[in-house]
Amino acid sequence: MKFSDLPLDEKLQRAIADANYTTPTPIQEQAIPALLERKDLMGIAQTGTGKTAAFALPILQNLLQDGIGSGAKNVRVLILLPTRELAIQVSDCFEMYEKYTRISSTCIFGGVSDLPQKRALSRGVDILIATPGRLLDLIQQRVVSLKKLEYFVLDEADRMLDMGFIHDIRKVVALLPPKRQNLFFSATMPPEITKLAATILKANPVRIEVTPQSTPIERIRQELYRIDKRRKGALLKEMLLEHPEMKKVLVFSRTKHGADKIVRVLEKAKITCAAIHGNKSQNRRQEALGNFKTEQIRVLVATDIAARGIDVDGVTHVFNYDLPDVPETFVHRIGRTARAGKDGVAISFCAPDEEQDLQAIQRLTRIQIPEGDTSIFEKLPPPQTETPESEARNSRFRGKKFAQKNANKPQQAKPKKQEAPQPVQKNLQPMPKTQNGKRLGSRARRRLREEQNQKKFNASNER
């Protein structure tokens, strides 16, 4: 089958030709005809298999047939996604497909000002691409209404579950009209996602499963390096310096602090790179992603929040600098390479305390990851041993913990402080309080005492 064989409008066919699409992927070939018949669909497919076009093209075709115009604050299509990056990616795809039509779409997400988003929604849009948090916020402000919704798409459902959006999804679903077409996409189907799908989809939905769940794409060549955590940075730097064919590299770190640390190591080696994670502003994240797409930087370091939000053509290598503690996340990470029919390489570093995570990944994927060439370890500098001072500085538990650890070490006696000289006490008469039965004030008492002391001084001089 070719795209030209599909019953799509001539305007959509022109946009498809401009995008150089010729042959549909398996999920597109199965999903587009079913969705054109307005059936509910559950799609299980790995990232990078063409899911966006699989639901975007039939939705646009149905909107063209039904006529355009949703009215102010109303939307006809809602596409819910877990991350800002993924929402922008899907929005770019819709803009590409709808450019010859009068269909309007907009994208809303958190982390930026909501004023432009409110202005776009006030004019009315046909297609709304949103993240759950910002959508609920604008619904509460009565900026957007879902009463006239006709199509609901939930993409990356299992990622929604991982990020804690399950309650927000239920809130959104409760606001939808009962008569609608539902599209449910996920790379994996854990029991919680199966229960959620049952509450959203109609009975007997079309089920499309392109590849076995959680199985990495076969075109990805994998390598494993068991190495101490303190030497991971040196290994990554050495591999990038020795292999210029690593032109577009994506490195995954478990933490935001770890991602920034990797960037500092690579920058010292004059390797162009940038980090993208939750602590970065939206503008900084988009700038880093744009520079990575245009190859202005060679390495993009990301946390798992970006594992499904990065759609960049030509990623040659993916590094798992830290193994994820959720095995399914490993599949989404390495799925950033070997896209659009190309080959890719996934390299994983495993520290001794990550062996259990590695075993869980290999059980899930049913693949024994082969170990790479360890001769490169000879070129790495030996790990630096920490001195007590550096250990105290770098330790998470400072102060009391470090003092307890060094309690048995001999302590140098501190010099005693010299006591300040005591002031010389003068032999003064006590201050009288009364005179002739009358109580004296402070000034009178002071004056009387001075007179008594003067008399005593004069008498001692006469002697």
TrEMBL record:
Gene3D superfamilies: P-loop containing nucleotide triphosphate hydrolases. This is ATP-dependent RNA helicase RhlE. SUPFAM superfamilies: P-loop containing nucleoside triphosphate hydrolases (SSF52540). GO terms for molecular function: helicase activity. Residues 1-29 form the DEAD-box RNA helicase Q domain. The keyword Thylakoid does not apply. The keyword Hydrolase applies.
